[in-house]
């Protein structure tokens, strides 16, 4: 999520609310459930099955970037909204 977040930054995230475009969300990696990803909400879809969102990277052209272009839309029920970030001491 560079440049918004860099390795070592801290954050406070809570499970709440419906995703909104532009928010940062934390969620389990759909390809490796033991790892969590932090992405920005690109779009939101509501359906009778539940709400999903498009997880987009801030730096989509960086090597190794993975987001909804790779793994599809993410269930909102499994995500946390980032409320606060703390820059690491560099």
Automatic annotation (TrEMBL):
SUPFAM superfamilies recorded: LexA/Signal peptidase (SSF51306)
Name this protein carries in UniProt: Peptidase S24-like protein
Family annotation (InterPro entries): LexA/Signal_pep-like_sf, Peptidase_S26
GO molecular function: serine-type endopeptidase activity
GO biological process: signal peptide processing
Residue ranges the record marks as coiled coil: none
Organism annotation: Mycolicibacterium chlorophenolicum
């Amino acid at each position: 999520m560079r440049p918004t977040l860099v390795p070592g930054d801290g954050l406070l995230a809570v499970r709440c609310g419906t995703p909104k475009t532009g928010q940062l969300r934390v969620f389990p990696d759909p390809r490796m459930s033991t790892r969590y990803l932090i992405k920005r909400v690109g779009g939101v879809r509501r359906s009778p099955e539940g709400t999903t969102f498009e997880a987009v990277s801030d730096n989509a052209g960086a090597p190794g970037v993975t987001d909804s272009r790779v793994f599809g839309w993410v269930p909102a029920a499994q995500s946390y909204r980032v409320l606060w970030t703390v820059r690491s001491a560099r």
